[in-house]
Structure formats: C-alpha cells, structure tokens
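#help-structures

NK: newbie question. if I give both the sequence and a SMILES, will the prediction place the ligand too? trying with adenosine-5'-diphosphate
OV: yes, paste both and it writes out the complex. here, I ran yours:
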Amino acid sequence: MYAIEVDKLTKIYGKGETAVTAIADATFQVSPGELVAILGPSGSGKTTLLTSIGLINEPTHGKVVIDGATVADEGWLPGIDLKRLRREKLGFIFQAHNLIPFLTAVENVMIALEINHLPKTEAKKRAAELLDSLNLGHRLGNYPTALSGGEAQRVAIARALANRPKVILADEPTAALDTENGKNVMTLLKKLAVENHSAILVVTHDHRMVEGFDRIFHVNDGRITGEKSN
Amino acid sequence: MNLAIRDIRYHRGRFILTSIGLGLLLGVVMSMGGIYRGLFADALAVLEFTKADIWVVQQDTNGPFAENSRIPEDIKYRIKAVPGVAEASPLSFQTIQIERLGKPFRFFLIGYDLNGFGGPPLIVAGRNIRQKRYEMVVAKAMKMEIGEKIHLGLHDYTVVGITGKVVSSGGDPAAYVSLADAQDIQFKKDNDAIRNDRERIGANLAGVQSLSPAQAKFLKQNIAGITESTHTVNTVVARLAPGADIKAVQERIRRWNHFRPISVEEQTKILTKGMIEKARMQLGLFRIILLVISAVIISLIIYTSTLDKIKVIATLKLIGSQNRVIIGMILQQSLLMGAIAYGIGYALILLTYENFPRRIVLESFDLQALFVIVMAICMISSFVGIRKALKVEPAEALGG
Ligand SMILES: Nc1ncnc2c1ncn2[C@@H]1O[C@H](COP(=O)(O)OP(=O)(O)O)[C@@H](O)[C@H]1O
Ligand SMILES: [Mg+2]
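OV: that's the protein plus ligand as structure tokens.
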C-alpha cells in the first residue's frame, strides 16, 4: 500500500476568465519511507500540490489517496473528517516555523499530541524526549521568540513528527535558514522520516538541498515535467 | 493544555491592564447598585428608626418627609386617646445649613419629646439627651466631638452624644434635640422681630375705635402670645397596642378632618416611589449604559485578540485541532477576563465604599446577579471572535 497516491490531480483557482490552473494532471505514488523532493521555480504550483495532498486545498479534479484511504475524488469525499485525517496521518512543516508564539517549545509539541488525545503527562514526556533527541533538551521551556531559526525549525519538525504520521509534508523548510542550518534540518528530516518509516514530500527551489532523496520531481507551470530517481 | 491560560500567561501585561480597566468599569457599576440600595436605606432610615405604626400629618399632605406638614403639638393627647393607640409622640424635622469651620455644614435636625419616642436609636459615644434644653445628639457622620457647641437659632447647643448612621431621606446626617429646642430653632423669632410684631399688633388695635385702651392692651398680649407660640410639630407618630386594627385607628383620626394618618406602608411608598424614583431610574439607566459599554469593550478586546491570533488559529486547524479547542480558547479567555475584572471591581468597592459621600449598600443578591450578567456578556461578546475564528482557513497558516 502506498502512503500517497495521486491520480490526475488538478487544482484550478478561481473561475472563468480569471481561472488559474496551478496543478494539472499530476499522477504519482509515494511508498512509506520514501523521500521525495519537489523542485521548481516560484509560482510553478509546488505549494498547491502539497496543500492538495495535505487536505488543506480541495482538489478540483482527480483523486487523492492517503495511507489507503481515498480522501478526494473530484473534490473531497462527502462526509470526510479532514481535521482528523490531518492530525492522525499527516505532519506539516512550513517555511516559517509556524510555532504558536505563546507556547514554549515543549508545549508546541505537546499540543499536537494532546489534540490527538494523548493524556497530558504522556504528551509532556513524549514531547520532551522528542526535543531531547533533536538536541533541544535545553530549550524545552523557551518561547519561539527566544529560539534561533534552526532551533525553531527543529521544534516544528518535532511537532510534525510527534504523532508518527504516515506522511510528512514540508514546504520550503530550509528557505528561512542559512545553508548550513538548512542542510542540517534537511538531514534531520530525512533521518527521522526513515526512522519513522514515513513518506516525505519536501518542496524546495534550492537544488543544493535535494541530495540524498529517493526521487526528485521537477514542477513547471503546474505540470510535473521530470522525475529523477537516485 | 489550556491554551487560554497559556496565551494570558504570555500576554499577562496586556491582560492585567485590560482586566483592571474593565474592573474599574464594573466597580462603577457595582457602586451604582450600592448607591441605589443606599438611596432606599437612607430614604427609609428615619422611618425605620422611629418604629411607629402611624404617622399623623397635616391633611392633604404627604408629610413630613415629602411635603411640609404642620400640626399642633397638643393633638398628641387626642391621638393617644384613640382606642388601639398605645403611644403617641410628636416629632419635628428641619434641614439646617450653617457654616462650620468655614464650610457649609448641612444636617437634618430631629426634635423629639424626651418622654416619648422617636429619639436617637443608638448612642455609640457619650450619652442621650437628659436635659430639656440645649443638649444635642449628633450622627457619627457629622464628625463632631462630644462637648462641641454649635449655634442654632438664638442659642448654643452642646453635643452630649453620638448616634450611628441616621440620615434624612436626602442623605444628610441627622442630629437630635429636644422638641422644645427644635421648635425654638424653627419658630422662635429674635427679640427685634418680636418687638416689631408687638408694635404692629398694638398699632393695629389702637386704630380700632370701639376698643378701650385696656381692652386693646389685653388683646395685644393675647394675639402676641399666639403669634409667638411655637407649639407646632411636623408629625405625631403613634404606636398601636398589640392586636389593634390599624384601619380603624386611621379611620377615626381621618374623621377629625384636619389630619392624615399615614401607615408605615404608605409612608414607605411615598419615600421610595415618589421621592427617590427619579434618582433610582437615573442610576438604573447608568448601570445599563455602563453594562452595554462593558459588553462593547469586551467584544472589541476579544475580537482584536482573535484577529491577533488568526495565524495561530489557522496553524491549530492545520495540525488538526478540533473546533472545540479553538472555541474553548476564546471563550475561556473571555470568561476569565470577565471574572478577574469582576474580582478587581469587587475588591475596589469593598475597599472604598465606606468612604463614599453617600451610603453604599452592597447586597449579595445584586453582586451575584451582576456576576451572572458579566459572565453572560462575556459569553455573548466572545461570539463575534468565535465566528471569526471558525471562518479561518487552515491554508492561512501558510502565507508569510
Ligand atoms: N489561493 C490562491 N488563489 C488564486 N491563485 C493562487 C492561489 N494560490 C496560488 N495561486 C496561484 O497558483 C499558482 C501556483 O502557486 P503556488 O502553488 O503557490 O506556487 P509555488 O509554491 O510553486 O510558488 C501561482 O500562479 C499562484 O499565483
Ligand atoms: Mg510555495
């Protein structure tokens, strides 16, 4: 069973004259534990592809299957609980770390566990362990503003991985970091995805960041124009 | 994890400041409720302390508090003789404003029969009036010392005792003197005025041809005596014997034609419905306006704090938070702010209400009702914020 299956996925923003086809006829599959990078220039549709798979953006046409469950087939499947699927099966990492400013590092990870019904004490233990494994053990009680860019992004990775999701979606996770920190974050992401046996889809426009990925998709003008396997 | 409390903890400076501001507002709302109750308590103070069943006043008046009422003092004997009446005692009321220590000094002077009732309810310092003349008992609020003298009318009066919180229906502190003293202060003219009056009466009588000088002299003395008489009071209060029928007693007194016997219920109505109704409505209106203002302020605070959190809310939705997590965060914050503001307002009133110029009566029912109203306002006010939050799309977490 694939972690992600996409069949003729098309996303059109707007209607009529002003309609923009951001993604057209994307078809591919990603297996559990596979590392996939999506490369492409700005405005090519990378984010749209990611958010359509990530149950944030309703696909206009085509099919999306996550961990064996069809979630979209010519639009969302009726009655589907998107939030539940997002918290149980998906982990998100963004360009900006998107940490909640009024929660400390450990609380930012805990919240993801708690909304997934983990009791508070366990959530706290798990979050602390996770951060400790990311070398953030000394930062548990710090607010995001007190963290460096690299540290904040590592907390965000911890939050995305907290529920051991089948799929991790990362949209330019290194864009706000310098090259060294960027490389470190990318390495960490890959390592954790492999450990967790999660499929990972990372969007970037920086080809220096894609080494070590299993597959690389090139996106141009909303179409997947090339695929390279390592 | 409670997001509302985490957010408050992080923005505690802002939260405390808004709570204090809101607390001040609620404190004003509470004090208005207290003043409103105080108006009642003040209006009824003399009525209650007197413990009379019937107030006999001049016919066709709502006396002695709401209107001027003058009746002869000696009517007390007739009232006492009515079957069912146990005691009757005359009372005189007047508002006095003099200068004391260079400032206007206003109080309510009650004259009572030292052998009757209606005198000071409780002596907290010094003693009660013992001599028929020139002694005075004052309310604590007048801030006078025992032994202090003040000049009223033609004489000096010495403070011999202090009584508790007795005030007029207008909230002025009350002082007590003997009935005779009160009548002197109210009616007795100074010697020049008396001499003038006597001369005018004499001159008039001298002009009457049919009177012999001896007759004229006799008449002059009698008429002057009547004009100089001070045996007038504002009311005679009566207490009934156990088991007496108040309606029958009232009917009997009413038949004399010159008097109106007012029951305590009627007097209460005159004092509360008539005299303080406008002030009461005014206060009620202010309270409503202030509560509406509080509601608007709370809504605005909650709404702007929701706007500040759009990205947080979008992120929470994106990582799959249930709506109840987000609604809970907004609602709890609103309720907490209301509760803390209420607490601040309450503490403020508790610390200051003794020092208000007018009496503040804090009734637990009022305070509880206000708490419920504040909580309801917080709940309703947070709806605007919640509505906004529920419309936030998870995709909004991505931008910027
Ligand atoms: N919410 C939106 N509404 C309308 N057009 C959009 C929206 N989001 C993206 N687009 C358009 O879709 C195209 C692809 O955008 P995007 O997926 O953000 O590209 P990328 O992430 O590769 O920069 C762009 O032309 C962009 O203007
Ligand atoms: Mg993008």
